[in-house]
Amino acid sequence: MMNTLSIEKLYESQQTLLDMLKTKQDVFAKIKTVNYPLIVKWQMMLGVLLPIQFEILKKIGFTNEQTALIEYNAQLMQTQKDDQKLRELNEAKWNYIFEQAFDITSVQKISQEQALALIKDISIEMMSENFLKQVDAFMAKLDPNMPLIEKRQHLLTLLIPMQMSVMSKHGFAGEQGYVQAQKALMEYLHEPQMIEQASKAQIALFTRAGLMG
Questions:
Q1: What's residue 74's pLDDT?
Q2: Average pLDDT, stretch 121-145?
Q3: Between the CA of residue 83 and those of 8, 77, 159, 182, what are the distances in Å?
Q4: Interior CA angle at 134 toward 130 and 139, to 5°?
Q5: How far apart are CA 23 and CA 39, in angstroms?
Q6: How far apart are CA 4 and CA 10, in angstroms?
Q7: Is 6 helix (H, G, I), strand (E, B) or coil?
């Protein structure tokens, strides 16, 4: 059963997340300055973000790590559409991450229609049998005893190149384009069609990868 949160709990969880992220400024500074490929930097960023998220979710009543994050994010996106304070907290969180870890302070604006087209194309590719067969082969090589959070980070080595390929067709080329696209999409992730597309693709991917707990 889904753990439905009050607006106060959503406020509290987002503020706590932002506060805890700010204690990791030294780690984000390292991510920004090291000469590593984007995939490695994104893995490093998630290595900071995900454990904090899971710690907070556990405290507010979620148990299954992967389904909890999907359920929580869906509630967050749906609720923030009509709540400016929640939108501002979520934006502050991502602005902090993008600035501190990737030195992105401005964003290439796109329309809602462009954002939906991009998400749809990524979702279609993520759910394609061709890509999911690649996921099967990739996950089979990982240690079955590896924690779910580490498996998810490793999966980025397959997921990010696919996303970059799709994003380049929408005007976001290369590693900087990938980060810019992720930031540009944040403005529209509370829209119902965006939530539906993103959630459906994530569930298909994590289920196939055995990451649903």
A1: 82
A2: 96
A3: 12, 10, 32, 22
A4: 145
A5: 23
A6: 10
A7: coil
Residue 119 scores a pLDDT above 70: yes
Question: Which tokens sit at 42?
Answer: 């994104």
d(CA 35, CA 15): 31
Best CA proximity match to 166, nearest among 138, 185, 141, 140: 185
**Contact indicator for 70, 57 with CB cutoff of 8 Å:** no
DSSP string, 93-139: HHHHHHHHHH---S-----HHHHHHHHHHHHHHHTSHHHHHHHHHHH
Q: Which two tokens stand for residue 208?
A: 């196939």
pTM, to two decimals:
0.84
Sign of torsion over alpha carbons 151, 158, 104, 81 = negative
CA nearest neighbour of 138 among 165, 162, 169, 166: 162
